[in-house]
Specification:
The complex is a heterodimer of chains A (292) and B (581). By secondary structure, chain A is of the alpha/beta class. Chain A has helices spanning 23-35, 47-51, 72-85, 99-104, 107-116, 163-168, 183-194, 209-212, 219-228, 254-258, 269-291; strands spanning 39-44, 57-58, 64-67, 92-98, 120-126, 174-179, 199-205, 235-238, 242-245. Helices cover 37% and strands 16% of the residues of chain A. The chains are: A alpha/beta (292), B alpha/beta (581). Bound molecules: flavin-adenine dinucleotide, thiamine diphosphate and magnesium ion (MG).
Chain lengths: 292, 581
Amino acid sequence: MKKIHIPKEEYMVPGNLACAGCGSPIGLRFALKALGEKTVIVIPASCMSIIVGGFPYSAVGVPILHVAFATAACSASGIRASLDMQGDRETTVVAWAGDGGTFDIGIQALSGAAERNDDFIYICSDNEAYMNTGIQRSSATPYLAWTTTTPVGNPKERPKKDIMAIMADHGIPYAATACVAYPEDFIRKLKKAKGIKGTRFIHLLSPCPAGWRIASDEVIRVARLAVETKVFSLYEIQDGEAYTINYQPKGIPVEEYLNTQGRFRHLTGEEMAIIQENVDHQWSRLLKRCEG
Amino acid sequence: MASKITYASEMEMPFSPVSSGDMSWNRTGTWRYIRPKYEDKTPPCNAACPAGIDIPMFIGLVGEGRYDEAWNVIREENPFPGVCGRVCFHPCESHCNRADYDEVIAINALERFVADQAPPLEAGSPVRGRREERVAVVGSGPSGLSCAYHLAKMGYQVIIFESLPQPGGILRVGIPSYRLPKDILDKEIADIQAYGVEIKTNARLGGDLSFGDLEEYEAIFLATGAHVSRKLSIPGEDLEGVGSGLDLLRDINLGKTVHIGRKVAVIGGGNTALDAARAVLRLGGIPVIVYRRSREEMPAFDEEVSEALEEGIKIQYLTGPTEIIGTNGRATQLECIKIELGGEDETGRRRPVPIPDSNFTMEVDTVIVAAGEEPDLTFLPEDIRVEGKMVSIDKGARTSEKGIFAGGDMASLDRTVAHAIGFGKRAAISIDCLIKKRDVNSVLQGVQVGENGILSMAKYLSEVTRRRSPHVVAFEDLNLDYFEHAERNERVKLPVSERIRDFREVSAGLTDGQALKEGERCFSCGVCNGCENCSIFCPDLSVITDGGVVKYRINYDYCKGCGICIAECPNNALSIEKEAK
Ligand SMILES: Cc1cc2nc3c(=O)[nH]c(=O)nc-3n(C[C@H](O)[C@H](O)[C@H](O)COP(=O)(O)OP(=O)(O)OC[C@H]3O[C@@H](n4cnc5c(N)ncnc54)[C@H](O)[C@@H]3O)c2cc1C
Ligand SMILES: Cc1ncc(C[n+]2csc(CCOP(=O)(O)OP(=O)(O)O)c2C)c(N)n1
Ligand SMILES: [Mg+2]
């Protein structure tokens, strides 16, 4: 049996405000296990702003700064600068933003910080829509997925934005994808990132039961299927150039992934075939990049 | 636990909104409408094991290299892991869920591996508190020894009376040492004696002692087996050169010199026939097995038949003996008739029908009859009820006479070592109930594994530990994402040329590396093996892994009832319950 081994230390307490089965607190819990107590987290408007608890309480045992929607990266830059001035090189600064806050509204601040190679870890917890405000599409929403702003009959006709390529092309020292169903991989990547200076970017896939129209107990299974079907691949990029695939997926047909979720229920066989083609294309592109 | 913070006025509030308390005041458990709970279930292997071994538990320990503990887990139910790890027909493996995935777990080989690692027990091994009541066991086969073992561990004073000069029953005098080396048997019998069991050999009930001599005992367990060879009822059976398979095996096993010829016909298709033929081969004879039906109907275990065929033993299927022909009082020819299979008989096997005028003869110098065995019940007092040539017993292994129990081959047609061991355990529980004045029927009901009457001594002795739901885990109940395809680890067999030279053991055990790998393959169906997935993926930090009887607990103050713990449990060791309103 494959047993998962992760650090025992806990930096969260129960009582968080996430919906039952939400992937976000699972991801945050893993992240803190990897990064430890000496961590400051910046959270822009997103579900996570709510999940961790409101004033005067927190479900997280490290300092959190709640900031405006578009400002995750620049706030992290500021905190880093302040810590540097205080001579604190030990504390890790983390920006934890949603896909809306990263792919869309926060991309300007993120691009600026990445270009300056500001020294923090940026984690985009991607649930593929603006979930906190009621499932509006973002540029991370997959092709043809239902959201409240892409209702059936008015589909999202653009593919998911390739945020990894964008970040890699900033030439940052480290970028990696991760998934809540693969805690060891995620934790290893964060530990590695912690040891690198400069802007480090982690794209974490984290299903949302309400928005993806799945049962609360299916979050991990569906996340795993995303990886096993190659819809979402686990890889890392060093210095914007060197690609490494970290997990060889089984390559299950995408249908099996799409069929688990209500947001894809309207898809026709033909549409699923197109999605399969897109996924195969993405995968071969990734393989080419690995070859260099 | 943090409580809510109350500010009496705005003035008390901090200048900037800084958190000063944690969220644990917020009992998110109130959101829950379904409730996960830890609930071990019945593994199919365990439910199929007549001896009731907790198979996933012991295999899990093997996978972690904890061989000694694994040995003890087996011995909670069965004092014969070394014996069973060699000769059991392992119905557990036929029920293993891994069959639907790649190949079943090598449970039998693992059991042997565990036993082969174990050092001998020291005399005076601890029991559960001495009791003065004395129990007599008649017959030292697996059934009698198992009963004596369990009773001795419960603290009773147990004595076994055995008619032969050595203990072990068929394990001693039936199964040859190429399948079960005698030192393995000796070791496991000595381990049973280490709990204070006394064995009196050369003590035959109905000869050396009578039922009257047993009156001083609180209870008697009869386990005298089935040692009377059935006759063929054809002419020539009393010629010289004709004998029974069981007699031949007994003589070989007790070290007597036996004279067998070169051309040997062995009649029958059961374990006795196969073992007799293979023993003959090892003594330099050329055996031919003559069997009325086809391979499918052979009552011998399939692996034995395969091994015999590998060794070059000829099996003449669909052939029935009609007469043994002799010259000067010695068998020289066997006359047979060809047979075809007709409709099903009462045992569900197809009925052999002789083909007229198809008679032929074979040259022989020895004929070994192995057409089944029956119990010898001539020593029984008349008032013990007998049915169909067997002692009749109830679910509690009780005969019609109070205080007299029976089991094993003499009381059942389930004639295997594992069944015999199961009977011994059943009788031990029943005797304990008699002495402690407990209602045996309800007790037995409560200590069942699955629904086929398999009993768990672990359950009987401690009500709390390892409580399991009777639901037998199906393949579909498992989360296979946590398993990888892996080849079954097989034990190596000696090449045929070496095997047949003498009675050395045919199969080698698994190596250390093989056993570890094989242990890791186990799905651990329905049994928590401590993988911690439930805790790892809990979004609400509501799985508490601080040990205790059940390894994990759920903190219902905070569990929101998302069900991830249930879904991500590879083993189906959690269940869901509707939350009470
Ligand atoms: C040749 C052969 C091979 C077999 N191979 C296998 C196998 O590979 N796997 C398997 O699972 N099963 C096998 N079996 C079946 C299995 O051995 C029996 O089912 C099992 O041994 C029955 O156990 P028991 O304790 O009831 O009886 P037994 O093992 O027969 O033991 C009964 C004991 O009682 C003693 N006894 C009899 N009468 C008296 C008396 N009046 N007073 C005192 N003592 C008495 C006998 O001497 C004997 O020692 C085989 C059977 C045979 C014959
Ligand atoms: C400038 C601004 N616009 C809109 C909002 C409202 N708002 C709060 S959270 C949120 C959605 C965030 O989506 P995403 O970043 O994907 O995070 P998620 O909630 O999905 O985790 C929005 C639109 C806001 N807080 N600030
Ligand atoms: Mg989002």
